[in-house]
Specification:
Elements lengths: L1 H26 L6 H7 L4 H8 L2 H25 L4 H14 L4 H15 L6 H20 L7 H21 L3 H17 L7
Helix pairs in contact: 1-2, 1-3, 1-4, 1-6, 3-4, 4-5, 4-6, 4-7, 5-8, 5-9, 6-8, 7-8, 8-9
């Protein structure tokens, strides 16, 4: 009986996240109606409050899901890059390029920071930071990167990619800003190479 209840709770949580993701992408956080959202999936506001506390908590869950998907996609791209350094650059570039995706723009890069605050404090960003830190540590050990503090280098690389994505999302001309942001990110990242390219 308890197992079925847990499964039902997980199903309700997944339904609410999927409906919120759609509503936040189409209407934005402020305009999305929680009554419409819960009715659409056949649940009550009580289910929303039970699972997420409030609308802000639901947004945090949606942002976490999308941001985690972005990180996974970037890591997959990085893994195909050929070597650890090219992989690190490819991951950062991929993350920046995802700022052109309307769902990512609206939910993660515009509404997320406005409602949830500093993205560097989000759990999904902390996970990304740890992945970047491990990559930096490997590159330092290989002699590819200067012997810097790995956490400091990882935070600055992650911050540069995140801020480039935020800039693109907030721009009136995201497609014009994208190549400038990617070029600057790659140039900044190359500054920590032992032998700059």
């Amino acid at each position: 009986m308890a197992k079925r209840r847990i499964e039902t709770m997980e199903e309700n949580r997944a339904k609410l996240i999927a409906a919120a993701r759609k509503a936040f992408a189409e209407k934005g956080y402020s305009a999305a109606s929680m009554d419409e959202l819960t009715a659409e999936v056949g649940l009550t506001r009580g289910a929303l409050y039970h699972n997420f506390g409030d609308k802000r908590g639901l947004l945090a869950a949606v942002v976490d899901q999308i941001d985690s998907e972005m990180a996974s996609r970037a890591q997959e791209i990085g893994a195909r890059a050929g070597n650890d350094w090219q992989g690190l650059l490819a991951e950062g570039t991929a993350y920046i390029e995802m700022a052109l995706d309307p769902e990512v723009q609206r939910i993660v890069l515009l509404d997320g920071p406005a409602v949830l605050g500093d993205p560097s404090q989000w759990p999904s960003q902390s996970s990304c930071l740890q992945v970047t830190k491990r990559a930096v540590e490997r590159l330092i050990a290989q002699g590819t990167l200067k012997p810097l503090d790995a956490e400091a280098a990882a935070r600055l690389l992650s911050g540069a990619a995140l801020n480039a994505a935020l800039w693109i999302a907030a721009s009136d001309s995201p497609k014009t800003v994208l190549p400038k942001a990617v070029e600057a990110f790659r140039c900044l990242a190359s500054g920590i190479l032992v032998r700059p390219q």
